[in-house]
Specification:
Strand content: under 5%
Radius of gyration: 45 Å
Shape: rod-shaped
Order of helices and strands: HHH
Structural class: mainly alpha
Helix content: over 70%
Largest sheet: none
Distance between the termini: 138 Å
Length: 110
């Protein structure tokens, strides 16, 4: 069947539109599936196994224990240092001895 000049064959247009949408839909579905697979691999890849989690847990616990020991050591050393700086008994005794010598040398009694 021939169409008059300028007339549009709707059947051909409908087939073209259906073919375009079918192809486009198929391509979008494939792209979506490819994208989903790629995104899923990207999400799953960093996940670890139970063995890796157990090993990581052991390393973390070991590091925490080491840090606690280090903190306890630092606290003890700091406490000992503060105690030594605050313990001025020897310095006072030395000053008392010098003061006593001065009293004796000057023949005064304070």
């Amino acid at each position: 069947m021939e169409n008059p000049a300028g007339a549009v064959d709707l059947d051909k247009v409908l087939i073209r539109v259906q073919t375009y949408h079918t192809i486009k839909f198929t391509r979008m579905t494939e792209l979506t599936k490819e994208y989903f697979d790629k995104a899923l691999k990207a999400v799953v890849a960093p996940l670890t196994t139970k063995a890796e989690l157990t090993a990581t847990e052991k390393r973390v616990i070991k590091r925490i224990d080491e840090a606690q020991e280090e903190l306890a050591r630092m606290t003890a050393e700091g406490f000992f240092d503060v105690q030594n700086r605050l313990d001025v008994r020897e310095v006072i005794h030395a000053h008392e001895r010098k003061f006593k010598k001065l009293e004796e040398a000057l023949h005064i009694h304070l």
